[in-house]
Design goal:
124 residues; alpha/beta; three-stranded parallel β-sheet; two-stranded antiparallel sheet
Length: 124
């Protein structure tokens, strides 16, 4: 089984723009450019704001327990459903969680984490 991993990095806006310019120049010369997937933040403060301890606990609980609904997840992490829903919306927006509506009568939302491993890369 292949391990799905996500790279999260800290890059300044200048570094991102330099990477973009280099890729654009390579494409202009007709060279193939390897697609690099990842999630990048401009600094550690932005990273910590997006991936707080509580949100990390949510990711771990989803991977470990495979909850069938947001309500079930909230019970697992011992938090209010509304707060868990808010955190899930943020995690979905940045691509760390997928929320799938079930075809049941109550239209539950099942959270899943599409990655087995998340790597944090910090350039020094």
């Amino acid at each position: 089984m292949k391990v799905k991993k996500l790279v999260i990095g800290i890059k300044s806006v200048d570094e991102v723009m330099t990477d973009f310019a280099q890729a654009a120049e390579a494409l202009e010369r007709g060279e193939m450019v390897k697609e690099r997937k990842g999630l990048y933040f401009t600094n550690m403060k932005a990273f910590r704001r997006a991936l707080s301890d509580q949100r990390l606990a949510i990711l771990r609980a989803i991977r470990a327990s495979h909850p069938a609904s947001v309500y079930e997840l909230a019970k697992i992490v011992k938090r209010d459903v509304k707060n868990v829903s808010s955190d899930l919306a943020i995690l979905e927006e940045i691509g760390l969680v997928e929320l799938k509506k079930t075809k049941t009568l109550r239209k539950k939302v099942k959270p899943t984490v599409p990655y087995d491993l998340i790597n944090l890369d910090i350039a020094v």
